[in-house]
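Let's practice the habit of predicting before peeking. Look at the sequence and jot down your guess about where helices and strands might fall. Then scroll down.
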Amino acid sequence: MKWIRKDVFNLAIPIITEQLFVISLGMINTMMAGHIGAEAVSAIGMVDSVNNIFIAFFSALAIGGMVVIAQFIGQGNIKKANAAMQQALFSGLIITFVITIIMFIFQGPLIAMLFGSADHKVISNAHTYLGITLLTYPLITIDLISNGLLRGAGDTKTPMKISIFMNIINVILTYTFINILHMGIMGAALGIAIARVSGGIIILFVLLRGSKILKLTNVKGFKFDKSLLKLIFGIGIPASIESLLFNGGKLITQIYIVDMGTVAVAANAIAGSVATMLNVPGNSLCIAATALVGNHMGRGESKEAGSDLAYITKLSTFALIAIALIFIPFAGKVTSLFITNKEIIHLASTVLIVNSACIPLWSISFVLPAGLKGAGDVKYTLVTSIIGMWLFRITLGYLLGVVLKFGLVGVWLGMIVDWLVRGTLYLIRFKKGKWKSKTVIKLQTTSSY
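Done guessing? Here is the structure:
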């Protein structure tokens, strides 16, 4: 097997670089908040479990635009690719404004309903953090959807550059607000909020100016196109439902982690941040898989799509195993960078070691379905995700963590069983090849609009 594939690496390396900076944005906030106290770390972890549902929803919606654009470009239909970009961006903005208004009105009752059993200091910090970060939802949407569309067009360098800039802004501002101005949790929220707003404005400017392929034109004369929206939401809605149910399931696990106490909540937040950083190559290759498979399917190259997806999945598996082997001996030292509480450090490092030991299961659970979505096979991935999350992760997590009193470790073991189940189902789907008949846009002989 040829391990160095130029087409894959040209697409993946900028995404990996970008993801490193994106994840570091969250990690830096968690580290700095850790020096404010365990209550701040717990509050950020709780609020991020809510914010991440929103972020994941629009990331999934962006997949609809990404797949459609990738397949149009695969056909050489640049005009329709640009039209699809406008439809995805403007429809996404309308939805996000509605969600932002609803969240702003009901943020207090939402925190009380989900995390009412948490310590009152944690609840107070959570109100502050959510109240500021939710106001950036529209800019996050612009950033997420625009980046997804650019990747679908094969441009991974522009999102990378913007993410690097965002993270530099975040580091400078968060450090200033927390360590110099002593603004506490509000400083952490303002740092990440201003960084996100900056990124959204810049990416919008890039699209208005025009990238190599995509350009936002005739904004004043924009009209919704039902046929293009049907294609975009035909992929985006199932992917978004999958994302909502998946992250909603994670939120449920967060609720019963809250009942385990501040130590468990803080350890879970820290372990989640570290695990996400360790998994940057895997998450990046998910994005590459969607774009590459979409391009191939647009050209009618189902065999090449399967070959690329198998290669990317194997590459991700070996990369994650290598990272896990390096990380395990240093788990305690890494978690101690976030906080000084020894009990939290021990618990966070324990679940991270469990996670690292089982990481070979991750790629078939997440990289494979990312490629299947690129082909348009979103309904199967939706059903499989529901089975894994709701029948296994939530149920077993509660049984092991709460009923059998394994605590946070039990919750993470439930997650690993979820990986095993969904990975098996995705592997069966991939081997049978039914996903190859799910092309979103039928191959056309003309590129006229």
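How did you do? DSSP finds 16 helices and no strands in the chain.
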